[in-house]
Amino acid sequence: MSHIGYRRVYEEPRFRDGVRVLVDRVWPRGMRREDAHLDEWLRAVAPSTELRHWYGHDPDRFPEFRRRYLRELREPGRRDAAGHLQDLARSAPVTLLTASRDLDHSQAAVLAAWLAEHTPESA
């Protein structure tokens, strides 16, 4: 399986990023689209607005956020988007991008771990 990583969208792109996918529901504040160097913006895989608002990037709520977000990933629209990420990860390095300041307590971190665990290697 290819490498799956996550970074802030505001960081300069690196060659080893591979396919760069923004996984935020809203566009990053202050960033011009041409400066993002994205291959895709996959809003459908982002946590719901309700979950994002409840979480508020409070690290104490992260374990519950993670649980709820993983449950949301099983919903039909998000399941399809997550499946698309799995397809990408089978053939190329994938870097999930987010505007979150606290990367390790972000949906990108949850999603990267989920992808690493649930993406079978290609034949």
Keywords:
123 residues, alpha/beta, 5 helices, 13% strand
Order of helices and strands: EEHEHHHEH
Note the total helix count. Answer: 5
Mean pLDDT across every amino acid position: 93
Biggest sheet strand line-up: 1-4-2-3
Structural class: alpha/beta
Number of strands: 4
What would you call the shape?
A: globular
What percentage of amino acids are in beta strands?
5-15%
Low-confidence blocks of residues = none
Separation, N- and C-terminal Cα atoms: 10 Å
Q: Give the total of domains.
A: 1
Radius of gyration computed on alpha carbons? 14 Å
Major sheet description: 4 strands, parallel
Secondary structure: helix percent: 40-55%
InterPro entries: YeaO-like
Pfam family, one: DUF488-N3i
Description:
InterPro entries: YeaO-like. A 4-stranded parallel beta sheet has the order 1-4-2-3, covered by helices on one side. It has 5 helices and 4 strands; from the N terminus they run E-E-H-E-H-H-H-E-H. It has one domain. 41% of the residues lie in helices and 13% in strands. By secondary structure, it is of the alpha/beta class. The mean pLDDT is 93. The protein is globular.
